[in-house]
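Memo to structure team: turn this sequence into structure tokens by end of day. - J.P.
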Amino acid sequence: MDNEGFRIPRRFVARDAVDDELERLEKAVVAAAAEISGYRDSIALELGEKYAAIFDAHLQMLQDSRLRSELEDMIRHRHYSPEYAVSRTLRNRLTSPSFSYSASSISISPARTIAFSRPSKPLRLNPPPGSTLRCSVPAAL
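Reply from structure team:
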């Protein structure tokens, strides 16, 4: 079992499918950014900007050109599926001592970014007093 709660299998794509897979990844990133922005706006309205900041971090990760370049390289040259490339790259980054976000402060589910599945429970915007707000959304990239 991986940090995502399930194992994302190492799958490969055919050489002639690489461009289609890169396009699929780009569409997933755009959709994930829109979803994260919606969560960010909802949290900012209900709880304030302080709590919405975690979503800003997720959006920054999605827009990171080095991360995107790594993903493209894994798909284009190693022929990894986008799901596996995202999972492997984020797992490596989150465990790297030089990465600026810690795995304990950001929970990432790369497969959700690609698969567009919905959370099993609705986002609760009114946590009970004294509780800790934890955000578990795709940062996908």
